[in-house]
Amino acid sequence: MDATRRPIVVVLHGAERPPRMTTIEQNATVRYTTSHHLAEALPGADVLLVWDLRSTALAQVWPAANGLRWVHAAAAGVGHLAIPELINSEVALTNARGIFDEPVAEYVLTVMLAFAKDLPTTMRLQQRRTWMKRETERLAGSSALIIGTGPIGRAIGRKLRAVGVAVSGAGQAARESDPDFDSVVALTDLRAALPKHDHVIVALPLSPATTGLIDAHALRAMRPTARLVTIGRRGLIVTADLLDALDSGTIAGAAIEVFADEPLSPSSPLWDMPNVLISPHMSGDVKGWRDELVRLFADNLDRYIREEPLLNVVDKRLYRR
Amino acid sequence: MDATRRPIVVVLHGAERPPRMTTIEQNATVRYTTSHHLAEALPGADVLLVWDLRSTALAQVWPAANGLRWVHAAAAGVGHLAIPELINSEVALTNARGIFDEPVAEYVLTVMLAFAKDLPTTMRLQQRRTWMKRETERLAGSSALIIGTGPIGRAIGRKLRAVGVAVSGAGQAARESDPDFDSVVALTDLRAALPKHDHVIVALPLSPATTGLIDAHALRAMRPTARLVTIGRRGLIVTADLLDALDSGTIAGAAIEVFADEPLSPSSPLWDMPNVLISPHMSGDVKGWRDELVRLFADNLDRYIREEPLLNVVDKRLYRR
């Protein structure tokens, strides 16, 4: 890169611009745009910061990205950015992994404990001013299978182990020894592992290999007392099959944080199911998270300017079809 | 004790008798009674197992306990048993401490996480089929003061530390070094410690020294962002003061599991407060808990018969006025 030239950074935002951009604006020429004007902002730009993760504009205006060298997604999942034009190009793709690991792990522990202690019933009874003792469950001593052994899956594994849960993983390859899991089974052997656990947690990126992974067959392999927690990307779970499984008692319950279509439609039958906890894809959004996202991009931009290796490079091969 | 004579055990129960009494019935003569007939059951009995913890009958019929050597409470709190007749006698008093430590610690972690992740709002929004993202809090990195450094307080301390909470204790004496707490302040210095923490957890037995400990002054010393979790005995907290503090924003919220009068009256204003989580004194009641309570008494009865030291002897001096 020409060291005398400041990089041109396009910031693709939605209703809100990213906060605390001062440092970035000192080191780069920043063009702010929404999806509508992305085509005009891209020509000559070196870097694209995707702040609006729901935008599908890049696929449509890709030819305008004539100087693009790097795309950074301000999220853990790269979502709409996994387009063939980018995936098959030389343009680097990075994400915000790391920032969400701990908050998401806390969310998963929260919903698992809420189910174990039957907190949803307790809250419904409170609304009816009704005192009704029930027996609840211990979480310690139970077992969990975490599908996905990436940074978020590992953070969940460490968090659950800390409170006495026996934790196995399901990843690309089986292995006996792993710092964060008692053992790791291969995703191809998932069906055999599912019946052995009280909790199944889906923490995978969506890729061609994982689309529809949790279908009727997988759900039937789970224990009828088991609960599903999913923080993974849309498309991992076959929603109709999950609805059937919850309705018929194939599994005991589910906490769902990410949906095929967001926001979840008010007409979805999921809202009313007593054994379902719905949260609006916010488990990573702890106070200060936007500041942290910008700080990570600023660090990476420093690396870009100094021609050092970028942090959080996404392995684009996983997204090739 | 006369080794040729089987001990006579009176079981004071309410609507339900304790389960799995076979072993005990093999080793002792068991008289089952409710409060109404306690006076007839006690004469000549060696041991009283108090299964109905809400019974106040013992105080009224104490003179009938003419051979009593040991009273066992099937609970962590000894409640109505802390009567002067028993406290000032030579009769041993034991309780079920230990059995509830882990389940109660899990409950405390559950409500703290539920508040941090704003789960009550998430559930209310789910009932209204409303998708609304909010920013939530991380629990790791926050600080907690556990008032009460007994076995339950310690179990809570270990559980919270395991998920990254900085944990201090408040106990009889201050100390710098403690296996379960970063530091322990003396209860007499409680007021100075309260403003330093994000969470205040009350896990004390009720005794003359602790009655009314959490009053308006203590609540005003807490941070306005702090939340109170109480699993301690009735009487520790001045309910009217807590209501005021919750209503006026003196503190941010409370999870209450034990009440001055149980069941909590349907007319209590606590039920409707949006920043209050009410649970019906059931945090220790995990599946199998009654079996565990009976198993502990059976172990202790073996010790009694073998004239070995009893487990879980209550320090009756704490209850002398």
TrEMBL record, chains A, B:
<keyword id="KW-0520">NAD</keyword>
<dbReference type="Pfam" id="PF02826">
    <property type="entry name" value="2-Hacid_dh_C"/>
</dbReference>
<comment type="similarity">
    <text>Belongs to the D-isomer specific 2-hydroxyacid dehydrogenase family.</text>
</comment>
<keyword id="KW-0560">Oxidoreductase</keyword>
<dbReference type="InterPro" id="IPR006139">
    <property type="entry name" value="D-isomer_2_OHA_DH_cat_dom"/>
</dbReference>
<protein>
    <submittedName>
        <fullName>Phosphoglycerate dehydrogenase</fullName>
    </submittedName>
</protein>
<dbReference type="InterPro" id="IPR006140">
    <property type="entry name" value="D-isomer_DH_NAD-bd"/>
</dbReference>
<dbReference type="GO" id="GO:0051287">
    <property type="term" value="F:NAD binding"/>
</dbReference>
<dbReference type="Pfam" id="PF00389">
    <property type="entry name" value="2-Hacid_dh"/>
</dbReference>
<feature type="domain" description="D-isomer specific 2-hydroxyacid dehydrogenase NAD-binding">
    <location>
        <begin position="110"/>
        <end position="283"/>
    </location>
</feature>
<feature type="domain" description="D-isomer specific 2-hydroxyacid dehydrogenase catalytic">
    <location>
        <begin position="17"/>
        <end position="314"/>
    </location>
</feature>
<dbReference type="GO" id="GO:0016616">
    <property type="term" value="F:oxidoreductase activity, acting on the CH-OH group of donors, NAD or NADP as acceptor"/>
</dbReference>
<dbReference type="InterPro" id="IPR036291">
    <property type="entry name" value="NAD(P)-bd_dom_sf"/>
</dbReference>
